């Protein structure tokens, strides 16, 4: 006798659809995930509906939209075109796949990136090596400074619905987003956002950071940041040489005339 297919409780389905209206979470993924959590925790006496909801929320935040959303249920491709000027009413929830700062020269950002990599390397040596350097790092790790923060002037975000990627620029300081701190895969809720030339213009009132982290996106971001800064440094060196200024001075001039 065939068993009936597992069904997601309507109340849970409403919660998920309300939290993630666009793009929509795949019903098949949701059904499979709920069934897995029920099979794993259902025998526990204290496992209840709020706990199940939290399990599903954590699973969504820890997954890439490319794997869990319904294709075609998110952004339209035309939104990203350079001729597009429109109000994205939303609400939409996108995930952060890349982050940089276009208000700071790539030379400066790359210097910080390399210093952070050096600090991470020393931390790994201190935890895995029996060399004199490793022992010293283990002994001194409690006084080791935190990773050097990136300077900040104007963040540029790359947000995705799982298939379409939208560039966004902060017009006001967004306190819950920070290069080198905010993980890729973070889900970001947008509402009433102006799109100018295919770029979303972000203000605090239009943005809510929901959280999340996706390790695969984090790895891609590190590679993407390295490649992006390399390209930008080449361009900055060329432009600065033509104008007889340093790359940093060139960037300040760009900021002053509103090129960014």
UniProtKB/TrEMBL annotation:
Pfam families listed in its UniProt record? RMI1_N_C (PF08585)
Please, one GO biological process term? double-strand break repair via homologous recombination
This protein's GO cellular component annotations are:
nuclear body; RecQ family helicase-topoisomerase III complex
Q: Where is the RecQ mediated genome instability protein 1 OB-fold domain?
A: 85-219
Top-rank taxon of the source lineage equals Eukaryota
**Record InterPro entries:** RMI1_N_C_sf, RMI1_OB
Which family does the record assign? Answer: Belongs to the RMI1 family.
> Protein name, please?
RecQ-mediated genome instability protein 1
Species of provenance:
Coprinellus micaceus
Q: What is the lineage of its organism?
A: Eukaryota, Fungi, Dikarya, Basidiomycota, Agaricomycotina
